[in-house]
Design a protein that fits this description.
globular, six-stranded antiparallel β-sheet, binds heme C, about 20% strand, 8 helices
Length: about 220
């Protein structure tokens, strides 16, 4: 029984990977239909779609830069892809010495650090409004961006301008597979709950429902 749950926990980032294979989109962040001074008929017939270059929401500058967005998504997807083989190796070579939730945490952090060590101008991290690992705690900008993403609930990536760097946010939906560790506490298996309480006494990351905004993977790209 324990072994089964541990295996499930070890495989968590794989689920995470599987769940995040959303197609890359370079659609504009905001689109606005504007009308002309023409007659009503013409207004209705030829609505003009204008892409805004930048939108400020709660002091955060959302920008329309498909090249930056694409670069960020390449790194985010590369990061997701790099977790898989390493985790398979770790699962094979050490089935007993790693404690499940601890492994999730250590592995996720190690993978993040090693991915980031390969790059000089890009940093990848994960965050959530209700976070589990203190090391993934969002800053004020992350909070503001995630509140906007949560309201939109369209799970499209966004790019923001931070003066010396850009941030690309890839929003993550809570999939059914995530709920075993992030769902309603009454639905989380007792052994998993034990692990969460032991390793993350201040955990905030439960109570999610399927389809809800769960958090984001962020690529920070130096200008
Ligand atoms: C087997 C348990 C498990 C499953 C399943 C799981 N997670 Fe997590 N998740 C964790 C643990 C443990 C952490 C904290 C350690 C870390 O940094 O990865 C975490 C952290 C996160 C974080 C980083 C922010 C934070 O809370 O620290 C995000 C984002 C996240 N999970 C999203 C997801 C999504 C989306 C899914 C489903 C695709 C998912 N998780 C499935 C256990 C799980």
């Amino acid at each position: 029984m324990n072994k089964k749950i541990y295996t499930a926990l070890l495989l968590a980032p794989l689920l995470f990977t599987a769940c995040n294979k959303q197609p890359v989109t370079t659609e504009a962040l905001t689109q606005e239909v504007v009308t002309t001074n023409a007659t009503t008929e013409i207004k209705e017939a030829i609505p003009q779609v204008v892409k805004k270059m930048a939108t400020e929401i709660n002091g955060v500058r959302f920008i329309d830069k498909p090249i930056v967005e694409e670069e960020g998504l390449v790194h985010i997807d590369g990061f997701i892809g790099s977790i898989k083989p390493t985790l398979e190796d770790a699962t094979k070579s050490d089935k007993t010495h790693m404690t499940a939730m601890g492994v999730c945490s250590t592995m996720a952090m190690e993978m993040t650090n090693s991915y980031n060590a390969q790059l000089s101008n890009v940093k990848i991290r994960r965050t959530a409004l209700k976070y589990r690992n203190e090391k993934n705690k969002p800053d004020a900008t992350d909070i503001s961006v995630m509140q906007t993403l949560k309201e939109r609930a369209d799970f499209k990536p966004v790019v923001i301008d931070m003066n010396d760097h850009y941030r690309v946010y890839k929003p993550l939906p809570a999939k059914i597979d995530c709920l075993v560790c992030h769902g309603d506490v009454s639905q989380i298996p007792p052994k998993v709950m034990e692990g969460i309480k032991r390793d993350y006494p201040k955990d905030l990351a439960t109570g999610y429902s399927q389809g809800e905004f769960k958090g984001a993977i962020i690529a920070e790209i130096l200008k």
